Amino acid sequence: MSDEKKTYTPQEDYALIEGAYRSLADAILEHNPGIDLGRVRSAFEYADRAHSGQRRQQGTPYVTHVIAAAQICAEMRLDEDSIVAALLHDTIEDTPITHEDIARSFGSNVADIVEGVTKLTRVQFTNREDEQMENLRKMLMAMAKDIRVILIKLADRLHNMRTLDYMKEEKRLQKSLETMEIYAPIAHRLGMQKVKLELEDLALKYLDPVGYTDIMNFLSEQCIALDKFMSGVQKGILRRLKDAGIESSVQSRIKHTYSIYRKMYTQKRELTEIMDLCAFRVIVDSLSDCYNVLGQIHDMYRPIPGRFKDYVATPKPNGYQSVHTTVIGEEGIPFEVQIRTWEMHQVAEYGVAAHWKYKNGDQGLKSGDEEKFAWVRRLLEAQQDSDATDFVHELKMDMFDDEVFVFTPNGDVINLPAGATPIDFAYNIHSAVGNTMTGAKVNGRIVPFDHVLNNGDIVTIITSKNAPGPSRDWIKLCASNSARTKIRQWLKKEKREENVQQGREMFESELRRVGLTAAYLNDEDVVAAALKRLSFTQLDDMYAAIGYGGLTSTRAANRFKDEIAKQARSASHKSVIDKLNEAAERRSSRSVKAMQGVLVEGIDNCLIRFSRCCTPVPGDGIVGFITRGEGISIHRTDCPNYLNALKNEEESRRWIAVDWAERTLEAYVTSFTISADDRNGFVMDVATVLNTLNAKVRTLNARSHGGKAILNVTVEVKNLTALNQIIARLRGVRGVIDIQRGNT
Ligand code: MN
Fold this sequence. Notes:
The chain is of the alpha+beta class. It contains 31 helices and 21 strands. The chain has 6 domains: 10-207, Hypothetical protein af1432; 215-354, Beta Polymerase, domain 2; 401-492, Ubiquitin-like (UB roll) (Roll), CATH 3.10.20; 495-571, no CATH class; 574-660, no CATH class; 668-741, Alpha-Beta Plaits, CATH 3.30.70.
């Protein structure tokens, strides 16, 4: 390692650059000969001009880096636009070239990709807590609208890691840590095993140089013995398969340094105690040959029970397929054999990149596929652990569409609901920040309070001791409940008089709206009874609560209306209640307005909620429950909560008739629970069915319970027919025992 900078002559520069370009061109010809080399050449020349005069740490011309990154992309078999974009990937960041410039010369597709890579490059990683790492990985994935952005970023990182020797010690550690924590896991989730393994080994080399050197030395000491062992096994298997008439390629390799390193730590073993240093791979032409080979190998060597894994029948979440078995060799040395077809091999090595090439030739992803891909991407993302054996535990899917990841000026990642504004951000940091906020900047520019934040934005909150504090309008500008609650708390505490005044106005206007006059406020009996039911002792407290938003004026007015009706009844003042009813009838006969697709007898404007216990959809028999202050909650007529509640006399009066309107909404949220045999790949299979049905999945939670997999699924559907269709299809998934509406 040296930080000496060598000086290169122009002739040496030329030789280096042309040499790098030639090997890029060779890689393209080898892996993707359909690519237009003329276009690649002109991107190379463009990049060469743009970076002219810039040098890397070791003194070589900067452009050699982007050529090398493009070569890695070619080896990943990426498409033409990706390779062109890889050549240009540092131009926006490091030269005056803009998105428009690139779009003009190479098309907007390439320009968008380069811009995407630039955004990721600008994400600053400092040493972070573990939970931050997970957020960062998610953010990187969410930021890259085009998967090629991530793939180019991986190529960029891989080349930087290969040339890390020339960086300063501190930089080396920081980059290695990032690689281990962010980039290798992403490569893994995308199934890009080859890239992942190389990134891990390179990172280990700098993170634990002693451990790394120990393993390297040990392996080189064992080199002759290992070679002999490997070629013995390899020849044995080859001969046997040839005799059996199976066409195959048998590869042997020493395991990667990092996987040996991990084994030492997780199994707390000395290096010399680690027996299985080699692995073998048999690649065959057909699926049936995979199992034939397995039979032959189990016949040759004794298999270790419990180590056989069939990822062919049940692929790993990242798409990996192979049959794995571990057997004991002649000298009692165990080794693993992976058996797969050539196509599975491509996927195992190149992950998503291979899928994409197989499916779409060289066209890249089509927009429909990209949509499909987003779903797969989320699913991959949700898998904390790659190992399909414990896939079902604690799998929780949070759709990215619901979240946005932004930075504080210090580089901490803050996770907010989608649609969040600087107000949400400020209250997420601390109430005091929100309460003294006077302005906000996003990526250095002043923005209005209602500015919607995007992934990767750096948000700065401007505060002042003399800030007037949050205004009531802010509540509408928040996307997070916590911010709303904090604003209300402040309003409640700081603005009592204003709240009382405002609350009174809101309440009186609501009274008028339901056909009552403020005169009733002079009726002490009515006021006392209504306040008691609302848990207040005086009217001003109730007004204050309405003012800061702790109580809705509708709820308060309804209590008054109830009490007035009650008193009227008890005093036999029938006329009042009659008038009320008349008014209600007039309204209902004039126009029964459907609310969220539901008709409520006698009421044409109230809050409608669909109960979470039974999540009704159009087509279900329904009934309404008048909640305390939260409108009418709609249940199914076969909902156990409803059936139970009917036994209670007091409560039963609060149930009212409702029906579906002729026109319902486009989508209703509903849940169902699948119980199934706990088997590998089950969640993936369910996800695939939901995907082929174009079902809009909100959440998908899996857990394991008494040997069974329990999956709670929340979807949006139009009606019962659509829901039944989904359920019917899911019953066909292997292992499904039962599907019940609702969450259990
Ligand atoms: Mn770069």
